[in-house]
Design goal:
By secondary structure, this protein is mainly alpha-helical. The chain is 58% helix and 4% strand. The chain has two domains: 3-292, Fido-like domain (Fic-like fold); 310-378, Arc Repressor Mutant, subunit A (Orthogonal Bundle), CATH 1.10.10. It has 15 helices and five strands. Helix 13 crosses helix 14.
């Protein structure tokens, strides 16, 4: 890390550590921002798109029906940024076939842990504000039993970390966050900023909060995933999201280099406005895409419901397919709380209606997929 590249005292300072390498200490938030016309317009568009998505969340006939697949899709995309190979179908299939077993593939476990951490954080907001304590609790769940569990799950780091190529060192890294001795003070400032109310537009505060968390990088592993989780939790806590339906990982993944460059420009040049505009564009596009995707799922559900009006058991299975479009007779038996023959009959009804298709080719342990539902959940986002 070249200290001469960090040219903005307002963004923070570079120090030489006892180990001889340089590290960056971010300045406390908020910075002084100039609200030019482009930034105001970007904020207005993002606010409008987020409000539309949040309003949709308030009127969903069954919010869990959309939230569950959204959470899992986000878990896959956020984890993919960190290098996992799991796709949404892998995760959903593992949940049905293995019942989220401990023998799952390591990539699947990492993605599953993301779901657990996010759902835990949302539930915990009812009794605990967004805080360092909640961040540690989510991290403990994110890193439990996976490749990064060497990285002291639920504990802030006590050693130096850095960002760079796999063979880099603190001396050659692209970016070195605060050493442990200065990190806790930076985290204290960050937590104080989290609790500021009614002084900064929520979306701008959220953008700044995310950037500085990544600059501090307080864990040995899992910082990116926790930082992206915090965006959703912040907007829920502020009442800007009625349901956890906004996730920016797809946008960050699609514009990965711009995302990393934007974060680095803040540290080097105080480029907050450029980063905030990038973030707000992500909110706008992701919220608009979320509304389209939700609308498509609702139309699909209504069409299926009409075809199953006289088949109550099969109709009762329908919403479970929107949570997870993979189905087995054993799962049908479990969720309907009926006998095996009754469950089998309900599954066969959905097959005859072309809503389910058998995908194993086996005569035993058969597995079925509602492919139109999976495609509606997983399909490529428009406009990102």
């Amino acid at each position: 890390m070249n200290p001469e590249d960090f040219r903005s005292p307002e963004a923070g300072k570079v120090i030489r550590t006892p180990g001889g390498h340089w590290a960056f200490i971010p300045a406390p938030l908020p910075p002084d921002l100039v609200y030019d016309a482009a930034l105001v317009l970007a904020l207005s568009r993002a606010d409008a798109a987020l409000s539309e998505l949040s309003g949709l969340g308030r009127h969903l006939p069954n919010p869990h029906l959309l939230i569950a697949p959204y959470v899992r899709r986000e878990a896959v995309l956020s984890s993919r940024i960190e290098g996992t190979k799991t796709n949404l179908a892998d995760l959903l299939l593992e949940e049905v076939e293995a019942g989220a077993s401990e023998q799952a593939d390591s990539d699947v476990r990492e993605v599953r842990n993301y779901v657990i951490a996010l759902e835990y954080g949302i539930k915990r907001l009812a009794e605990l504000p967004l805080s360092l304590r909640l961040v540690r609790e989510m991290h403990a769940r994110l890193m439990k039993g996976v490749r990064g569990d060497y990285a002291t799950p639920g504990e802030f780091r006590r050693s130096q970390n850095w960002i760079g190529t796999p063979d880099s060192t603190p001396a050659t890294a692209t970016y070195v966050p605060p050493p442990p001795e200065q990190m806790m003070e930076a985290l204290s400032h960050w937590e104080h900023f989290l609790h500021i109310r009614d002084r900064i537009p929520d979306l701008i505060q959220c953008a700044l909060m995310h950037e500085q968390f990544e600059a501090i990088h307080p864990f040995l592993d899992g910082n990116g995933r926790i930082g992206r989780l915090l965006i959703t939790l912040f907007l829920i806590e502020r009442g800007r999201l009625s349901q956890p339906l906004l996730y920016l990982s797809a946008y960050f993944e699609a514009h990965r280099q711009r995302y990393y460059d934007g974060l680095q420009r803040v540290r080097m040049d105080g480029g907050w406005v450029g980063w905030i505009r990038f973030f707000l564009t992500g909110v706008t596009e992701t919220a608009q895409e979320g509304v389209r995707r939700a609308g498509g799922l609702m139309e699909l559900r209504e069409g299926f419901q009409k075809r199953l009006r006289e088949k109550p058991k099969a109709l009762a299975l329908l919403d479970h397919l929107f949570v997870n479009p993979y189905m087995s007779v054993a799962r049908a038996e479990r969720v309907l709380r009926v006998s095996n023959p009754t469950a089998r009959q309900a599954v066969n009804t959905l097959v005859k209606k072309s809503m389910l298709a058998e995908i194993t080719g086996r005569s035993w342990g058969r597995l079925y997929l509602a492919r139109p539902i999976l495609e509606a959940i997983e399909g490529p986002p428009e406009g990102l």
